[in-house]
User: What shape does this take?
Amino acid sequence: MQTPIDVSQSGPVRRSLPGCLALLAAAGMVLASGLAGHAQNAADAPTQPAPAESDTYVSLFVSDPAFGKDPFFPASPRRTLEAVQTTAVVTNVPVEASLDELFALLKIKGISFPSSGPLVLINHYTFAEGEELTVKIGGRAFPVRCVTIKDRSAVLNIRGRTKEFSLREGL
Assistant: This one.
């Protein structure tokens, strides 16, 4: 059985402890004298005056097409002066379109018979039997109801008037 060694009596730890303490004390004195000297130098140094009210400058960019050109795109016609000419917009459906004109603009694009029930594609709107959707025709919206879907045709109702539309030949 070994006996414990008492480190406090002898050995490298006992011999280095006073040296470490002396080194630590010396470093503390150097640090304290350096901070005191730095604080005194900072107190003796002239202080700069506080900045006056901030003078802010507002940049003003004038975009006058009659003067200058675009620095990034000098050949661009974007800044040229042009006379603006207005034209009336003409739609292919009058304000009070007759039902015959509305029916003439409706086209069946396709019919499919999935397991969930038949579907018909009218002017890019998909209808199921009995479904009513708002269809845009010539810039105006009209309620269209699909009454029934047959093998090659569909019966539609607009404003109370019913008409059967056939799928065009070749489809």
In short: The chain has a mean pLDDT of 76.
